[in-house]
Amino acid sequence: MVEWFTRATQNRMSFAHEGSTPSPGTMIKKLNSDKELQAYIIGLALGDGNLSSPGGRTARLRITCDKKYSFLYKKIISSLASLLPDNKVGIVDRDISCLDVSVYSNHLENLLGWTAKGGSKFVQKVSVPNWIKENIAYKINCLRGLIETDGSIYTDRGYKMVIFKSIIPSLTEDFYNMIISLGFKPHLYTIQPKKTTKYQFNQQIAYHVRLSKNVTEFLTLVKPEKI
Fold this sequence. Notes:
The chain is α+β, with helices and mostly antiparallel strands. It has eight helices and ten strands. The protein has helices at residues 35-48, 70-83, 108-112, 121-124, 130-133, 136-150, 169-181, 215-222, and strands at 2-5, 14-16, 49-52, 59-66, 89-93, 98-105, 151-156, 159-166, 187-191, 206-211.
């Protein structure tokens, strides 16, 4: 089951079957022009987002969230509702540990820069849009979204660390360069695939970007809510 709500009706609950598409009359809606909000959502989607088109027409974005970060997935729901104020945002309960935040919109493919029918983000070689990389505030918001999905904040021998993991070279390079452009010095690691693998994901080279110096300053600037 999917729980749907819009920005204007967050306190009113209605339900639809998973995979169902909102009626045609509700699909072309407003897109919030706030570029910082757009950059944040793009970061979330590039991290743990997936585009599909179950109805064959309107794109559907699903952002996978860990249930232990309830404050974070609630923030993602609110952010998507603000981005697409007339569209319904749904929660898809996947299993005991994770859920998907879901929304349909004809704006999604143009905003995110990849397509629902073009294959995985790895196949489409997704990257951060240039307009984000050219503006400090937009970069900060995009980095926040990337860290809140595909990043981790942890402590190693008493020191805070930030790490971002991806199998997409173009996205890894963008993440790495955006941090450098803000005055920080991350390290990039290439992780070779294991010799014996079961899943296709594990057969790809993985990339880790780790920040170990001036982390407190970086977190104060970017403010990812994953601590």
